[in-house]
Design a protein that fits this description.
5 helices, alpha+beta, 3-stranded antiparallel beta sheet, 7-stranded antiparallel beta sheet, Pnp Oxidase, Chain A, about 190 residues, 12 strands
């Protein structure tokens, strides 16, 4: 019995890093993980649209239906989303990079010229997206320098069969363009 406990303890043991992890190196290495790009939107206290670009969106649970994303704890937009108590995840299409960059910018002009319609919960559903997921906030957990915001899905729809926008190695693209780029590198066809 003691041998099993020792073996279990050894498996769970991880040596502490010899030096602190450099933030830039951390981002570079994790940039090798392709992520989907979504716009998380809501309406603020004066019914103005608010939103942020997120690359950490994921499904959490089927029963109950839950999704989540991470937001910088210092972000004023995430504070507005939390105050609203609800949000809509807009899955951006591959040709919406310009919109993505606009919504990622600082300032109050993010939604100038952006076409959207309110969801049943009142959240902006952006025109031209792949899909949307309307949620109420279920749980918020502070983790490091971010908040994990978990939403209970209230309604969701696929809007089109277009390919989604992806972020990979510091660039935007779609599945096909990023797959081609990766294949070129693997085959040394640059």
């Amino acid at each position: 019995m003691q041998d099993k406990q020792k073996k279990a303890a050894a498996v769970g043991t991880v040596a502490a890093p010899a030096r602190p992890i450099d933030a830039r190196h951390f981002r570079t290495v994790l940039g090798n993980v392709p992520t989907g790009v979504v716009a998380v939107t809501a309406t603020g206290s004066e019914q103005e649209p608010v939103g942020m670009i997120v690359g950490s969106f994921t499904s959490v649970s089927l029963n109950p239906p839950l999704v989540s994303f991470l937001a910088d704890s210092l972000s004023s937009t995430q504070a507005k989303l939390q105050a609203a108590g609800r949000f809509c995840v807009n899955v951006l299409a591959a040709d919406q990079e310009r919109l993505c960059r606009k919504l990622a910018a600082r300032g109050s002009a993010r939604f100038d010229g952006v076409r959207w319609a309110p969801s049943a919960l009142g959240n902006p559903v952006i025109e031209g997206i792949v899909a949307w997921i309307d949620c109420t906030i279920d749980t918020v957990i502070e983790i490091g320098d971010h908040h994990l915001i978990v939403g209970r899905v209230r309604e969701l729809h696929t809007v089109s069969d277009r390919t989604p926008l992806l972020f990979f190695r510091g660039s935007y693209g779609d599945y096909l363009s990023n797959a081609d780029r990766l294949l070129d590198r693997l085959l040394d066809w640059r």
